[in-house]
Amino acid sequence: MRHRKAHRKLNRTSSHRKAMLRTMVTEFLEKERIITTVPKAKELRPFAEKMITLGKRETLHARRQALSVIRSKDVVHKLFSDLAPRFADRNGGYTRIVRLGTHRKGDATDLALLELVGSELEPPVEEPKAKPKAKKKKKAAPKTKKTAKKAEAKEESKAEAKPKKKKAAKKTKTEEAGEGKEKKTAKAEAKKPKAQKAKTQKAKAEKAKTQEAKTQEAKAEKSDEKADKPAKVKAKAKKADSKKAEAKPRKKAKAGDKEEKKEAKAKADKEKAEESSKDDSEG
Q1: Contact 42, 97 (CB under 8 A)
Q2: CA-to-CA dists, residue 86 to 47, 83, 155, angstroms
Q3: In the beta sheet, which residues pair with residue 99?
């Protein structure tokens, strides 16, 4: 027995199924027709019809009940102001299901069209745009000899006035950048008053003079250093020679001191030996 098993589960959980039906009802009431599978259309049909019966009540409580299901305030307004008055004389049966006889590409399920009864919702037909009227060309007046001569004279004057432009040679990026900088500086100088221009020119001249003086001083210092280098080298050589000359007598003095010490030691040893020999003879 199938007691209390009235609705289709649609292979979804209860929360998922309720959310799906709510979104489908809002779209259906907004567009007044929807294409979906046959089982979904059969489940959506009573759900949508209950919303239309709520719209017939026209009370605040009914609006709040509709807002608890429908996800858009604009659709609720349309339900109470447009759809409910349309079906005021009809007691139920506001929708119809039409089997389309086509199958969905993914799983080959049967498709159906769910729409409101008596809905005249059709795609708007685009009217062909009217073509703009072509402007009528003014008929040229018949040319006389005088007018022909005047036209020839005008054409000759235009040809002389417009010399042929020569193609400019392509410039490199560096040249273009340099020209751009020069143009900017020229524009800035043109904007400045004459007094400022004179000041800037004086400042530039002073800077150039100071730079030239600094370069000359640097060159003079370098030349002096080059001239002083051989003198410095000679002085260093003299100092080295004097140090070597001082070191030689010191070494000789040290060698003489060592010889004297050796001789003194030898004399002392002799004296000791003589003294010991005398003591032995006396004994």
Answers
A1: yes
A2: 18, 5, 76
A3: 112
